[in-house]
Structure formats: structure tokens, C-alpha cells
Design goal:
By secondary structure, the protein is an alpha/beta fold. It is 28% helix and 35% strand. It is globular. 34% of the residues are buried.
Length: 249
């Protein structure tokens, strides 16, 4: 498959309902995980960088926090505004690399591998700069991305999944490869009526050590690392790299 794509591939990727199928949302479970390892108190202000359709923001709102979700996808933000916005949850259409409300938030979140879309480290760190600038000194952060240890051990070029949908099944086919330190994937999704969609995605694979150094450049101290939201250890047998910590005062 291996298609050539433009530099901002995510603008196309996050325009349709494709990610409803390929992403594991688990919003309520994620908030429970955050409550276990951090401090989520009613009234705290949360910045949800790359919020998608707003499911995680919505669960944080239900937990009593005041949330700002931002995303570059027009249909996603329109959905969130229509279905999930409230007096304590706002959704903003914008670029996560440039959206700034300096030091307004007690908690900043970047979830579901919403980082590392460029091969160039400096371009990736633009998002991290905004992430840090929006966080109050002493504030908490939660960050979730791919686990390169898991990928190296369990790499599969082709993955086919059947996703239940009403009384039928949606089929997803992913072809992946590693190139220039990037995990790249072509996706094909086949709906029950025969309709097909394709998409491309890529994410740079950073080690924990690289992330610790990168975060520290922006005043962010990584304090805990997990392999999934079940509090599993970060190792080669768990699929995620979840970073938790605080911004230095």
C-alpha cells in the first residue's frame, strides 16, 4: 500500500468518522486512571490538546473539572460543540501548535498519540512548547503515545480487525512499516454496505529517556511512566507510553 502523503496528513486523517473505528476511546476509564495517579479536583481547569470529538473532555467535565478542548478538525469540533459542550466544557477549533492561554490551566493533557507527527524534532516540539506554556507552574500533565519497546517486540506488518457495528461488522486493515524512526501506517476500512475509506498516519518513536529530556527543556518533569491505563508497568509487553508529571515552579 505505502502511499505518499502531504506534510500535514493529520488534517485529512481527522476529517471523517474513520477514527471512531480505529481509536480506542475508553474516555471514562482514562479519567479513572488519571484520578488514581494524579489529583483531579472539582473546579480545576484542564487543557485537552487535540481533543478529537471531545469524549475525554466530556468525561472530565462530568468529573467536575472545567475543560477547554482544542482540535484542528472542523467536523470533530462541530460534533463536540453540538453534543458535548456545557457551561464547564468549551471546544475550540484551532491549531494545537499555536493555541495559547499562558499558564491558565491546572492540568494539560495530550492523549491518544497526538504528538510526533513530524520527522523533524523541532517541529514536534512546537506542540510541546504550547503544551507547557498553557500549564501553570506546579500544574500536572498527562501524556499518552506509542510504546517503541512494545512495537519492536510485537511488530506486525499487517493487522486485520473486525469491529462490531449495530448488527454487522466493520473491517479494518492496517499495513505498517518503520522508516526514518517513524511508525507509518496505511489504513483501509470497509463498512458493511461496501463503502471504503483509506487513511495514512505516522508517529515518531521516542524513547522514555528522549521524552524525559525533551519535556525537561520545557520545564516539565516526568515523574511516572505506565504501559496502559490499567496501571501496568512500562515495558515491552504493554502497548502505551503514558507519562505523568508536573511543571516546575
Amino acid at each position: 500500500m505505502k502511499t505518499g502523503k502531504n506534510d500535514k496528513w493529520w488534517i485529512d486523517f481527522f476529517q471523517s468518522d474513520f477514527t471512531e473505528v480505529v481509536l480506542n476511546q475508553q474516555a471514562a476509564e482514562t479519567v479513572h486512571f488519571m484520578q488514581q495517579i494524579g489529583q483531579l479536583l472539582p473546579g480545576m481547569k484542564v487543557f485537552d490538546q487535540c481533543c478529537g470529538k471531545g469524549y475525554l473532555s466530556h468525561e472530565l467535565d462530568k468529573a467536575g473539572l472545567e475543560v477547554t478542548g482544542i482540535d484542528i478538525s472542523t467536523p470533530y469540533i462541530e460534533y463536540a460543540k453540538k453534543h458535548l459542550a456545557s457551561a464547564h466544557a468549551e471546544f475550540v477549533l484551532g491549531d494545537a501548535e499555536t493555541f495559547l492561554r499562558p499558564e491558565q490551566y491546572d492540568i494539560c493533557i495530550n492523549w491518544n498519540t497526538s504528538f510526533g507527527y513530524h520527522e523533524d524534532d523541532d517541529l514536534n516540539e512546537k506542540m510541546l512548547l504550547a503544551f507547557s506554556n498553557n500549564l501553570k507552574p506546579g500544574g500536572q500533565f498527562f501524556f499518552s503515545t506509542m510504546n517503541p519497546l512494545f512495537i519492536n517486540k510485537h511488530f506486525q506488518r499487517f493487522i486485520v480487525k473486525q469491529v462490531p457495528s449495530a448488527d454487522s461488522t466493520i473491517i479494518t486493515i492496517r499495513e505498517s512499516w518503520i522508516e526514518n524512526g517513524m511508525m507509518k501506517s496505511d489504513w483501509l476500512i470497509v463498512y458493511p454496505d461496501g463503502h471504503r475509506e483509506t487513511a495514512f498516519g505516522q508517529t515518531k518513536l521516542y524513547s522514555v529517556e528522549q521524552f524525559r529530556a525533551m519535556f525537561l527543556r520545557y520545564g516539565l518533569m516526568v515523574e511516572q511512566v505506565y504501559g496502559d491505563i490499567a496501571l501496568s508497568p512500562y515495558d515491552e509487553d504493554h502497548p502505551s507510553m503514558i507519562l505523568y508529571g508536573h511543571k516546575q515552579r
